[in-house]
Specification:
This protein has 4 helices and 7 strands. By secondary structure, the protein is of the alpha+beta class. It has a single domain, classed as Nuclear Transport Factor 2, Chain: A (Roll), CATH 3.10.450.50. Strands 1, 2, 3, 4, 5, 6 and 7 form a 7-stranded mixed β-sheet that branches. Strand 1 and strand 2 form a beta hairpin. The relative contact order is 0.24.
């Protein structure tokens, strides 16, 4: 039963995935020109690696994408404010076989400082007969040349 509780906590945070991030004409701040386009490309690559780490169950790599001051809000409204808690929640999930899809609904990169991705997230864990569907919104910040997840909000789809 403890494992199931850990999995549910992990699932509440699993919506932190950003989904495949394809560049779009409005994804950069055109006033900043080339620098903003470079930051947007860097963001897309960061998101690709973040998603790959999740699907590959590489816990250390995945959690390293969270800002030191990250806040996550689960589908149940639970608030997590430390990287250690985020790590613990995903550790339980990563022990299980699961499938996940998280297509991007909207992506916006503002210059070289802030980005938001909204995804339609579906997660299935066959061994637990578990299915979750939620909308995930990730706010990223760029600090010291690296994109990090600053805020992670998950809303259930009923």
């Amino acid at each position: 039963m403890r494992k199931y509780g850990i999995v549910l906590a992990g699932l509440a945070l699993a919506g932190t995935l950003a989904g495949p991030a394809a560049a779009s004409p409005d994804s950069t701040d055109t006033a900043s020109g080339g620098a903003a386009r470079g930051c947007a490309r860097q963001f897309d690559e960061t998101v690709r690696k973040f998603d790959d780490a999740f699907l590959g169950k590489r816990l250390d790599e995945f959690v390293s994408n969270y800002h030191r001051d990250a806040t996550t809000i689960s589908t149940a409204g639970d608030v997590t404010t430390t990287n250690a808690q985020i790590r613990d929640n995903f550790a339980g999930l990563f022990e299980l076989e699961f499938s996940a899809v998280f297509p991007t609904i909207k992506k916006n990169v503002e210059g070289c400082t802030t980005a938001v991705i909204v995804s339609d997230f579906t997660l299935d864990i066959p061994s637990l007969n578990f299915h979750a569907h939620f909308v995930n919104s990730l706010t990223w910040t760029r600090e010291h040349g690296k994109w990090k997840v600053l805020n992670d909000q998950n809303t259930p789809v009923l």
